[in-house]
């Protein structure tokens, strides 16, 4: 699912990598061309995050670029409490709503972030910054969603209100990858994250 890019490559995945590198002060032109300058910045980033400085943007480097973590047993796979995630979202300008105005994950009318994966929270913040759109979360880790490994309950998914800004960003930035079994249109980010357009929201699966 992850697009690996390296020196000599061109395209949207290279642009995505350049955009992420610029979050760390790389100062690259986001031109989609993986040249000497991008190669040098990738190797520098990899060295500073304890990764093999091979200049290849693969799964581990994507994860580090998007989350600011190199993985391992630390923050990238950790689970957050509702309070921790709420504080992170508030600081990033992300809001949330629930039909029951509550945060109990055992009630389907609540919106809870208890048990949300750090990578999912970081992914939402990255989406907010990259898109420039106001984000409103309408579904978190509470019960009532579909089951499965990569589920809301297991902290991999968030639902977002489908504003015009967000919808235009997703459909204009990420690759259309067909429809899901329930008919939802699917879009896949270079990192492998999945965006499904359900009837009332964007269902986003943060895999990395």
Structural features, described:
It is a single chain. With 208 residues, the chain is an alpha+beta fold. The chain folds into two domains: 12-67, no CATH class; 79-205. Helix content is 33%, strand content 15%. The chain contains six helices and nine strands, in the order H-H-H-E-H-E-E-H-E-E-H-E-E-E-E. It has helices at residues 12-23, 36-48, 59-67, 82-92, 118-131, 164-173; strands at 79-80, 95-96, 116-117, 136-139, 157-160, 175-179, 185-188, 194-197, 202-205. Helix 4 (82-92) packs parallel to helix 5 (118-131). The longest helix is centred in the middle third of the chain and has 14 residues, at 118-131. 38% of the residues are buried. Residues 71-77 have low confidence and may be disordered.
Secondary structure: elements and pairs:
Blueprint: H1 12-23, H2 36-48, H3 59-67, E1 79-80, H4 82-92, E2 95-96, E3 116-117, H5 118-131, E4 136-139, E5 157-160, H6 164-173, E6 175-179, E7 185-188, E8 194-197, E9 202-205
Parallel strand pairs: 2-4
Antiparallel strand pairs: 1-3, 4-5, 5-9, 6-7, 7-8, 8-9
Number of domains: 2
- Main sheet attributes: strand count, strand direction, barrel closure: 7 strands, mixed
Q: How is the largest sheet built, in terms of strand order?
A: 2-4-5-9-8-7-6
- Proportion of helical residues: 25-40%
The coarse overall form would be: globular
H/E series: HHHEHEEHEEHEEEE
Could you tell me the number of beta strands? 9
> Counting H and I runs of at least 4 residues, what is the number of helices?
6
Strand content: 5-15%
End-to-end CA span: 10 Å
Return residue spans where pLDDT drops below 50 for at least 5 consecutive residues.
71-77
* Rg of Cα set: 17 Å
